[in-house]
């Protein structure tokens, strides 16, 4: 492991991209070496620091991930599913740690990421915060302790520009609840209720999504039965927590063998 791993950020102009760049440049054990944007973006060829309204950082924004990844020990990626799958293959070729915070991935995307993980370290999580990962572990433990008489509902809220639902974090919590129950989430999901839906299906894991304003991220896991309820809750008020978690994962991954990991591995939970 080098003392200061070189890191490339994809989707550099986005909110998460800019927060990642700020976190990396402020960290004593990491250095920013690459910033990727889609072809034709207005920032291509310009210094990322100037684009962000600050001092020059000596790193130009590029639309060539292959060249940037070749010089990197880690790639941090909060983009879109199709782009993430492409980046996974390129990062694996470069043997760079690939930290994935992208949500909305389907089974085909995951299969391609699994293939890339045979050659490099991939760390993927629906949420990079310490608090959410603790919530995930608690959700699994509570679900394991309660029988099917307890209904499970996951309620999530995000800003009005989020394009996928349920959120990656909500799905991660759903998977944890299903694991605690010893069931497959895909066979017990209940979401998008509308109209005359009939009674709630026993043993289902329900999802509800709220979109509005500038909500960073709120997740409740509700366990309800006759006469009582348990609510586990996490509220994020600053997106910087996700950037710090992703950077922690990129640094942790430097000493790991090729394979697919998550934030539970990074945090030792």
Gist of the model:
The chain is α/β, with parallel strands linked by helices and 269 residues long. It has nine helices and twelve strands. Strands 3-2-1-4-5-6-12 form a seven-stranded parallel β-sheet, sandwiched between helices. A five-stranded mixed β-sheet has the order 8-9-7-10-11, with helices on one face.
How would you characterize this protein structure?
The protein is of the alpha/beta class and 269 residues long. The chain is built from nine helices and twelve strands. It has helices at residues 15-26, 48-51, 65-70, 81-94, 107-116, 130-145, 168-181, 240-252, 263-267; strands spanning 6-10, 31-36, 61-62, 74-77, 97-100, 121-124, 151-158, 189-191, 205-211, 217-225, 228-236, 259-261. The chain has a seven-stranded parallel β-sheet with strand order 3-2-1-4-5-6-12, with helices on both faces. It has a five-stranded mixed β-sheet with strand order 8-9-7-10-11, with helices on one face. Helix 1 (15-26) links the parallel strand 1 (6-10) and strand 2. Helix 1 crosses helix 8, helix 4 runs parallel beside helix 5 and helix 6 packs parallel to helix 7. The chain is elongated, with a radius of gyration of 19 Å. It starts with 5 loop residues before the first strand and ends with a helix.
